[in-house]
Description:
Largest sheet: 7 strands, mixed
Order of helices and strands: EHEHEHHEHEHEHEHEHEHEEHH
Structural class: alpha/beta
Shape: elongated
Bound molecules: 6-O-phosphono-beta-D-fructofuranose
Number of strands: 11
Helix content: 25-40%
Amino acid sequence: xxxxxxxxxxTSGGDCAGLNAVIRAVVNAASLKGWEIYGxxxxxxxxxxxxxxxxxxxxxxxxxxxxxxxxxxxLGSLNSGVKLESMETLSKRFGEGARxxxxxxLVVIGGDGSMNIVSNYCHKAGIRMVGIPKTIDNDTPIxxxxxxxxxxxxxxSDALDSLTLTARSHNRALILEVMGRxxxxxxxxxxxxxxxxxxxxxxxxxxxxxxxxxxKSIKASGRNHALIVVSEGVKREDGQHVSAATNxxxxxxxxxxxxxxxxxxxxxxxxxxxxxxxxxxxxRSGNPSAFDRVLATMFGARAVELLQxxxxxxxxxxxxxxxxxYDIDQVVKExxxxxxxxxxxxKAARLTGMYVGEE
Length: 359
Ligand code: F6P
């Protein structure tokens, strides 16, 4: 029997579709156990800032409102990368905040970075924690899927459907730049779903001449348009990042590779005009897909089950089509999961005629 009476829940890192469906699942499952649920606002900020920012949540917050069906985070989130105070100061204030609220445990909805940071805070503060993976990048280790990825793929695939129609009207090769940071999962899945002709991902080197050859062969086949997907983390052909912009803590802010490609392709080939669409943060929104809602509900329910069973410092995962959980330290140790250039996704793309870089 668990001694838990009150839990906290927070969303951390970049938002994505499905976060509210996770919050609803946790709130419903926890309140059925008679626990109180405190929603912590703006990620860890809600516990490290003063006054503390939180809201007591009940199933009513979600049962009679559109919230669980919407993207964004009801609670607000925090990109931890922009925090400038020391870990020591923050974890101390975090622990004091959690104790002031009387939290027995915390459910953290976040990506690999958040699992690392928040599990550290919780460890130092002696707070039990269960993690739920979410990210449009799908780069959280061990889990095959994170909440938000499927919806982001749908947003990109829908964009490609739209682009192909206008590309056809104007003899164009349209370039879609998608997010994903250093991982090409979002680009590759979207390119396959959206039936693109070229897909460039950070994990696989490419040649502009090979892209041009692919465009020439499309033209020779009688088609007057093409679709190119490029992941924001792809570097120029010479291996340099396009963007020199950095955020407050010196991390590269990605973006711009689409324009580089457009210019380079046009220098070599004029039959198809190129134009660039950068989807940007629309990929983090969109109507949460059925898969993301199902995943959100299973993850939320399992997180509460784990807390009830006294199994903490765990992250719930979806692996080989079943629900499971792993030690968070192991998740953190594995780092970011990149797209495997030998994966079935890349293989299928190549076998169906997509140029995905050099073998
Ligand atoms: O990690 C999610 C993500 O959307 C990345 O794909 C992207 O590079 C980054 O966040 C953008 O972050 P921000 O919202 O800070 O611009």
